[in-house]
Design a protein that fits this description.
single chain, 112 residues, alpha+beta, GMP Synthetase, Chain A, domain 3
Length: 112
């Protein structure tokens, strides 16, 4: 479910930003907490390769990240059939696509 939630957020990221953000971005679910009230708290990080891409993902006044979060939260909540509290963070990690550890975390084999 963690990986599915990350892919949903990534989809919403690309739908919102279209051609503005290169495909060199990645979403990781860093925290998944089932709460006593029946809801789920999810914290995800959107990794981009440059600071200029971070600004695009955030949008003016945070409007882009807010829209991405709202759309992703809605779809994840529908799939889980429970309330979702989704928190998105955007971080710069240069050349993240060349890091074998990133692929291992996703369950993929990295060979150069």
């Amino acid at each position: 479910m963690r990986q599915l939630a990350a892919e949903i957020t990534r989809e919403k990221l690309f739908l919102r930003l279209h051609q503005e953000l290169p495909y060199a971005s990645h979403v990781e679910t860093e925290k998944w907490e089932e709460r006593k009230d029946g809801s789920v708290r999810i914290e995800q990080v959107i990794y981009v390769e440059r600071d200029s891409q971070k600004k695009i993902a955030l949008g003016k006044g945070g409007e882009a990240i807010k829209a991405i979060s709202t759309a992703a939260r809605k779809e994840i909540s529908e799939i889980l059939e429970q309330p979702v509290h989704l928190f998105l963070f955007v971080k710069v990690r240069e050349n993240w696509g060349d890091d074998p550890e990133r692929f291992r975390e996703m369950g993929l084999d990295f060979t150069k």
